[in-house]
Design brief:
- The structure is a single chain.
- The chain is α/β, with parallel strands linked by helices.
- The protein has one domain (about 5-380): 2-enoyl-CoA Hydratase, Chain A, domain 1 (Alpha-Beta Complex).
- It has 16 helices and 13 strands.
- The strands form three sheets. It has a seven-stranded mixed beta sheet, sandwiched between helices. The chain has a four-stranded mixed beta sheet with strand order 7-9-11-12.
- A hairpin with a 2-residue loop joins β1 (about 5-10) and β2.
- The longest helix has 20 residues, at about 100-120.
- The protein is globular, with a radius of gyration of 21 Å.
- Mean pLDDT is about 85; it is low at about 1-5 and about 390-400.
Length: about 400
């Protein structure tokens, strides 16, 4: 094997392997400096790389540092372990003595980081292998280049937890083909790597065994021009097709059912369709919906539908409002109850309040979309440094 600083052949390409300098901001965030590139690795494999507040603080600083550093051309984002990231650290939120305060702080920074990535001035290449969920999606779905492998498993299961599809989901999900976005948001259904590429969430598909080659070729680039990165990714990307049983081959049924106006109408359409077709798949979809939080389902559908006509800026601010109300338990305590049943006690027997869709009136849903005054999310400003200009510049977490 070639040593650092030597040349070697990879896939017919003569590659110079630059010397590697490591530095770690936290044990959970590993950084490698490679000449004109930076490699950031999420490093909490036992915790499925769930992102806690200390990791968010590190991400903020690193993103800003690299964006304004003229010596950095592009970044690679990846993870150790079986998950890219399964989302945010919900256990820490639930067990903290002031979950509302911590939840607001963590989510404020989460939305800020998601939007920063979406408006980043330099290319970011993310390598999706393993679980990609919740905050893991928000951190990476807006990256310029998104590489999925056969190990990728993508899902947005927040509605089932009594929450809502956040992490910019209200913007990118409605822009998927047909009503696939509503289906994914309401059911928490999973997509594999081939499906991610087919529906456009991933820009490339690369076999996991070739990720090391891809990374070496990227790090050998003289500069970070998007066309050079694109060409490098294209050279190792392979053509894949979803399995015949993929939900992407059931779009006629998805569009028919999930285009309905309300959650109640969607469920009624699913019942009619499954009875007619005798579909085991639709039976599973039906059961997943009736087990989910009624509040979570209704606020998620409203958010996705509103997002179809909103900008990313507007969607991000609106998502924070819904989140603020969720951690405040403005209309329901379902968010914390969902965490308890899924993450803490793991009994999978949540007690939703309200317990039925009929009790979650439109007036109640209207409340969680209302502006929140001085608590409103302040998003990063393009071309201005420091980009971190939020109201929580002194971490609230350390004052709790």
């Amino acid at each position: 094997m070639a040593k650092r600083g030597e040349e070697t052949q990879i896939e017919g390409h003569l590659v110079h392997l630059p010397f590697k300098q490591k530095k770690s901001r936290t044990k959970a965030l590993l950084v490698e400096e490679r000449y004109n590139a930076r490699v950031l690795t999420l490093n909490k494999p036992r915790g499925l790389n769930c992102i806690d507040l200390s990791m968010m603080l590190g991400l903020e600083n690193l993103l800003e540092e690299w964006e304004k550093d003229d010596n950095v051309d592009f970044c690679i984002l990846k993870a150790h372990g079986e998950a890219f990231s399964a989302g945010g650290d919900l256990r820490a939120l639930y067990t903290h003595h002031n979950p509302s305060r911590l939840g607001k702080e963590a989510c404020y920074r989460m939305y800020w980081i998601d939007y920063h990535v979406a408006t980043y001035k330099k290319p970011i290449i993310v390598l999706w292998s393993g679980l990609v969920m919740g905050l893991g999606v928000g951190l990476s779905v807006a990256c310029m280049f998104r590489v999925a492998t056969e190990k990728a498993v993508f899902a947005m299961p927040e509605a089932a937890l009594g929450f809502h599809t956040d992490a910019s989901g209200s913007y990118f999900l409605p822009r998927l083909p047909g009503y696939l976005g509503e289906y994914l948001a309401l059911t928490g259904a999973r997509l594999n790597g081939a499906e991610l590429k087919a529906c456009g969430l991933a820009t490339h598909f690369v076999n996991s065994k070739n990720l090391w080659k891809l990374e070496a070729l990227l790090l050998a680039l003289d500069n970070g021009r998007p066309d050079l990165i694109q060409s490098t990714l294209d050279n190792l990307s392979v053509t894949v097709k979803p399995h015949q049983n993929s939900i992407l081959n059931r779009m006629d049924v998805i569009n028919k059912c999930f285009s309905k106006k309300s959650v109640e109408d969607i469920i009624a359409a699913i019942v009619a369709e499954k009875d007619k077709a005798g579909s085991q798949w639709l039976e599973r979809v039906y059961k997943s919906l009736i087990r989910s939080s009624p509040t979570g389902l209704k606020q998620t559908l409203r958010s996705i539908r509103d997002g179809r006509s909103k900008t990313l800026f507007e969607c991000t601010k609106q998502e924070f409002r819904i989140t603020w109300h969720a951690v405040e338990s403005t209309i329901s305590t379902d968010f914390l109850e969902g965490i308890r049943a899924t993450v803490i006690d793991k009994d999978k027997a949540p007690k939703w309040k309200p317990a039925s869709l009929a009790e979650v009136t439109e007036d109640k849903i209207d409340l969680v979309f209302q502006p929140i005054g001085m608590e409103e999310l302040q998003l990063p400003q393009e071309g201005i440094f420091p980009r971190w200009a939020g109201q929580y510049q002194v971490p609230i977490y350390h004052r709790l």
